[in-house]
Amino acid sequence: MTEIAIKNATAIFYLIGVLIFLTGLVFGSFLNVVIYRLPLEKSIIRPRSFCPVCGAPIAFYDNVPVLSFLLLRGKCRSCSAKISPVYPLVELLTGVSFFLSFYFFGISWKALEIAVLLASSIAITFIDLKHRIIPDEINIFLFVFAVFLPKEIWGVSYWPAAGLSALSGLSAGLVLFLIAIAAEKIFKQEAMGMGDVKLITALGAFSGFHSIFWLIFISSLIGSVVGIAVKLRKREKGYTMIAFGPYLCAAAIIYTLFEPRLKLLF
Ligand SMILES: [Zn+2]
Questions:
Q1: Most buried among 39, 58, 75, 165, by the most CB within 10 A?
Q2: Distance 81 CA to ligand 1 centre (A)
Q3: 55 to 49, 74, 77, 85: CA distances (angstroms)
């Protein structure tokens, strides 16, 4: 390629990158609705967005991702109640996630897989931290998406790959279910919610049989480190139930990114 052709290709690459980032921002705005409404079992389609304090509907020009938050200086236009910075944070995280998926994997199934995994992880993390639940809707969506997503890298044709994916997920769920029961017997307390079992079923469908050990190992490792750190800071004694969903998501993301290297180890 000539120098100009390379420059043009680079410019086009970043132009697409910016468009994908903006799409991510808009999608992040939708994730905010999911994060706010799903745990309360409200519809994510209707009604339109409104201020949770005064109930005033939010006009489209006040609902532009990140930008509106900055222009309104984080306050509701009608009642001046403070808007949580979590909203622009979720939008920004989703925009960056979409951009990075494209940056590293181009326009491919793998990029779509990573983008969906990251976006779902954002929703699951914020919901689980606040409500200590993982909505079934997200787990079911992830499982179905993972099973029917083409997996050219698995080296088998479509339907066998889909079947293998479903079987991987169900096996992962069964393994964590057995661990949860064993832990409950040993510690005489519920150690893990069924939401976590359903989540690993969905994540296992994403990453296959090889991932089961790694998903459990990496999430437990991160969970232990964070759990000990929180305990030391709060000087709490005894047992505290932690939200395990975010660690499972982190494990799935780490596994998906480092898959070829991890497979060599196990
Ligand atoms: Zn308001």
A1: 165
A2: 5
A3: 9, 16, 11, 19
pTM: 0.89
Distance 124 CA to ligand 1 centre (A): 26
Ligand 1 center to residue 69 CA distance, Å? 13
Between the CA of 74 and the centroid of ligand 1 the distance, in Å, is 11
- Summarised one tens digit per residue, pLDDT across range 39-53 is 998 888 888 888 989
Ligand 1 centre from 48 Cα, in Å? 14
The residue ranking higher by pLDDT, 129 or 18, is: 18
* Per-residue pLDDT band at 131 (split at 50, 70, 90): very high
Q: What is the DSSP letter of 76?
A: -
Domains of the chain, by residue range, sit at: 1-107, 133-266
Q: Tell me the pLDDT tens digit for each residue of 225-247.
A: 988 888 888 765 555 556 889 99
Residues in CB range of 29: below 8 A, 6 or more apart: 63, 65, 91
